[in-house]
């Protein structure tokens, strides 16, 4: 049997080019927020899963926090309920909270876990209730507006994540928190990912979404953004809806010690590896 030498050399070249990045990130925690919009079909989920398993196999510690907004919306629709969002947060009554917990903690979480395990990873799915990971309290928008069972993070106990990392598992976290009375809270996945990255003092946080990055009004990618720019772009309506919590909590993470935050297109094949293994990265980099 003959070997295609030039193809093998290409593979070897690519692998050696990745070496400095592998060395730089080995042993480091990298939080990956996997948005519901970037997991709309099996091809997307499998490409994501391969990237995460590869990260783990070369010695990084990926921690996945996933969303599932569109999946929750589709199920609510089946029940005849409309989704309503204010400042990127789902208005969450009791019935909606049940659907959120079922979808995030159940179907979506297990689909991500299964895809990672299918690619040879050892993933363990959790909600914020498990191991006391995410304690939440009611979030009041602008300090006063009540939008139901939406939670902001009160306290994070990261011990269960540390145990899983130490055991070689990939933690896959659904952003459902618990309150003082054990009640469930719907936490926006961007908020949960940003706050968890800060507590873990992660090297990086990567938000995978369905846009090429943060776009300006002419649809150009804004490759780098600072705090003042972000607030200006929210104020003039360039950044709206689901992108608002993403940029706010990316900034919050960077201001809390996470080395870098990136918002990238999760629909591109191997987007996580492209971000990790190239100097310029892809998408938008958020600075402190
Ligand atoms: N300036 C912007 N650049 C890119 N996307 C934006 C911007 N402002 C708002 N968006 C919207 O934010 C969406 C991503 O947020 P969201 O729907 O919550 O996704 P995810 O499921 O990834 O969290 C984009 O699909 C786009 O419609
Ligand atoms: C309070 C709030 O908005 N919670 C979100 C949680 C899921 C999420 O954030 O999903 P994506 O990352 O796919 O948008 C929701 O109910 O849709």
TrEMBL record:
InterPro entries: AceGlu_kinase-like_sf, AcgluKinase_fam, ArgB, Asp/Glu/Uridylate_kinase, Glu/AcGlu_kinase, NAGK-C. Residues 28-265 form the Aspartate/glutamate/uridylate kinase domain. It comes from the Bacteria. Its main location: cytoplasm. Pathway: Amino-acid biosynthesis; L-arginine biosynthesis; N(2)-acetyl-L-ornithine from L-glutamate: step 2/4. The record marks 33, 246 as: Transition state stabilizer. This is Acetylglutamate kinase. It comes from Solimonas aquatica.
